Amino acid sequence: MLNDQGWLLSLALFFPLIGAAAIVAMPSGAEQAIKRAGVLFSGITLALTVAVMVGFDYAAAGELQFETTVTWIEAIGARYHLGIDGISLPLFALTSLLTFLCAIYTTKIIPKPGKPKAFLALMMLLQVGMAGTFLAFDLVLFFVFWEVVLVPMYFMIGMWGGPRREYASVKFFLYTLFGSVFMLVAFLSIYFVATDAGIANPWDIVELSEAAGIGSYTFQTLAFLGIFLGFAIKVPVWPFHTWLPDAHTEAPTVGSVLLAGVLLKMGTYGFIRIALPILPEGALRFAPLIGVLGVIGIIYGSLACLAQTDVKRLIAFSSVGHMGFVMLGISAMNTTGIQAALYGNIAHAVVTGMLFFLAGSLHERYHTREISEIGGGMLVKMPRYGALLVFVSMASLGLPGLAGFWGEFTALWAARSPAPALAANYSGLYLGLVIFGAIGTVLTAGYFLWLIQRVGLGTPSERWADEPLSDVMTVEWVSWLPLLALILIMGIFPVIIFGVQDPAVTNLVSFFGG
After folding, report:
1. What local confidence, expressed as pLDDT, does residue 1 receive?
2. Is 1 a member of any domain?
3. Count of domains observed in the chain
4. CA–CA separation, 1 vs 71, rounded Å?
C-alpha cells in the first residue's frame, strides 16, 4: 500500500544515496567541486524534508502519515513499511538539517588526510541510516537501518580521527555490534511469540504496539533485557558509556556533531518507539533500574567533566549527563516523561552539536584543546567566538529561556509522579532520583562555568598574546546560525516541539498504560 505522498518520504530518505553515488563518480582532483556537490545534495535532501514538513497534517500528528507498506522479503514476512508521525518528524528534520550544516562546514574545514570524496560519500550514507531508523515501522527494516549507521561512522572515526582513532573506532564498532546481537535475538523472539499470538504482520511495529503486550511476563522481561542492551549502549546509558568519550574525542568535528546530534538519539528513540509499547510489562519491571542508571549517568558525567583537561572530552562526558535526563524521563513512563525525553533529545542535539562545532573550530585556531594550554583570554582574542561559547554553554547548563532547560526540568517534573504502576511501589525511589537529578543540574552549571572561566576570561597568556587568531569565519556563521537560532527559539517557544509530539506521545503512552 502506497500513500498518495508516500513516495515523497522515500525520496527524502534515499536521495542522499544518489548524492553519494554522484560524488564517488566525480574525479578525485576536483575537491572544490566535490565539496560544493556535498552541499548541493544535502541541501536538496533538506528541501525534500521541508516539503514533508509542509505537507504534514499537524492536527493528526498522532497518526502515521506519508505511509508506504509493500512486501519486501516475502520469505520471512518482512515489509518495507515507512511512515512519519509527531515523534519521528522532529528527529527526521534534525537529521537533514545537521547533515546539511556539516556539509557547509566541510567546504572550508575538512580533517586530514582530506579526501573529501570519501568523507562526504560516507556522511551521506550515514544520513540514510540515521534517518531510516526514525521512519522504519518494520523490525527487520529498522534493524537494517540501525546497522547501516555502523560502517560509515567507523570509517569516519578510523580515517579522519585523532591520534587514537584506530582504538576509538574499533571500540565504537565492537560496543555497538555487541548490543545489536542481543537486540536481534530479542526481535526474533518477539516475531515468534507474535506469530503464535496470531498477529498478521509479526514484524510490524504498529501492529505489535496495538497488541498491548504479547507473551508472558517472563518473556517480556527477557525480551526487554535484550532490547535494553542494544539501545542502552547506543544512548549510551551508564555503565555502557565508555565508548562515547573516546569516540567523540578522536572523531573529526563533523563526526562528533552527527554522533551527538543524531546517533545517540537512535537509542532513546528505540526505547520509546519499540521497547515500551511492545513490551510494556518488561518496561515497567526495568523502569526503576533505567531511572537509577540515568541519574548515576547525570552525576557521574558531571563529576567526570570537572576532571577533564580537554575541551572536547569535557563536552563528550557532558553528553552522558544530558542523556541521563532523557533516560530519567523515559523511566517515568508517563506522557510528561516521554515528552521530556523526546524534547531533551532535540535540545541535546542542537546544543551539544553546536558545542562540538565550537570545539572543532577551537582546535583549528589553537591547534590544541587542552584547557591549560589555551590559558584564558578568549573573549579578548576572539570576542565573537568567545561570546558564542558562553551562549551555548549557558544553554547546555539549562539556563531558562534557552533550549537546554525544558527537557531537564520536564524530566524532573515527570519523575515526581511516575506512572501509577510505578508510583504504587517506587514513589520514594523516584523522589530520590528527582533530588539527585537536581543536584546534577548544579554540577552541570559548575563545570560549564569553570570552563568559561578557564578559557574565556582573563587576559591571553604569553603564548597567545601576539598570536593572530581569526574570529568567527563566514562559513562558520552560515553553519552555526540555524543552530544558534534554534537554541533561542526552542527555549522561548518550547511548544514548537512539544506541540508536534503531543498527539503521538498520547497515543503511544496509551499502549502501555502510562
Report:
1. 46
2. no
3. 1
4. 9
- Residue span of the structural domain in which 324 resides: 6-511
DSSP string for 13-54? HHHHHHHHHHHHHS-TT-HHHHHHHHHHHHHHHHHHHHHHHH
Complete DSSP assignment for 296-330: HHHHHHHHHHHT--BHHHHHHHHHHHHHHHHHHHH
Euclidean distance between CA atoms 284 and 220, whole angstroms: 10
pLDDT digits (tens, 9 = 90+) for 38-59: 999 999 999 999 999 999 999 8
Grade residue 186 by pLDDT with cuts at 50, 70 and 90.
Answer: very high
Q: Which grid coordinates belong to 432?
A: 530520590
Residues 6+ apart with CB under 8 A from 250: 157, 161, 162, 163, 164, 165, 167, 168, 169
Q: So what's the pLDDT on residue 373?
A: 87
Residue 359 lies inside a defined structural domain of this protein:
yes
- Cα 57 to Cα 508: distance, rounded to the nearest angstrom: 18
Residue 161 falls in which region: left (phi positive, over 0), alpha (psi -120 to 50) or beta: beta
Residue 282 within a domain: yes
Residue 397 pLDDT > 50:
yes
pTM: 0.92
Q: What is the average pLDDT across 267-286?
A: 91
SS3 72: strand
C-alpha cell at 416: 515526581
Residue 72 inside a domain? The answer is: yes
Average confidence (pLDDT) over 371-400 = 89
136, β-bridge pairs:
82
Taken in order 427, 431, 434, 440, the sign of the CA dihedral is: negative
Residues near 34 by Cβ (< 8 Å), separated by ≥ 6?
23, 26, 116, 117, 120
The pLDDT, as a whole number, for residue 16 is 96
d(CA 328, CA 418) in angstroms, rounded, equals 10
Rounded to 5 degrees, what are φ and ψ at 3?
A: -60, 150
Closest Cα partner for 268 from 328, 326, 335?
326
Nearest Cα to 469, choosing from 355, 390, 374, 389? 374
